[in-house]
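Researcher: I'd like a structural prediction for the single chain below. Treat it as a standalone chain; there are no partners to consider.
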Amino acid sequence: MASHHHGYTWLGSGFDLHRDGPRRDVHPGFATAPVPPLEVAQWLLKPASFVQGTWTDPQEAARWFGLQVRPHAEAFVSRAERENLDARIEAVGDRAAGGEDVVGGWWLTGQRFLSVSLVACSPHRLRPSYACPVSGVA
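Model: Treating it as a single chain, here is the predicted structure.
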């Protein structure tokens, strides 16, 4: 099971999100591209500067997740996403405690997209060979 989770966020143009070249680990610009990778675990392949926080306590990670999402809720394009946000955030701690990645993505007004991710690390259960971007430990 993962010993900790790293937090990552991205807020940007939906047009950038749809250009999936830089989101692939084989793309020459992948390491420096701020857009979310196509595979969640591949956040761990990016430099440590992309990590916005690291938590061993799943509930602390869940609090951070909520703090990243809630300020944008009024801009969610989907009313259903706004209405279900509390329940979704409440489930984050349980999923993180189980060693899972937690990924949220929301379309916002103005053709923007918000991505918030908690990525399990050391080891990642699907990609155990990926080293921790902060400590370098696999």
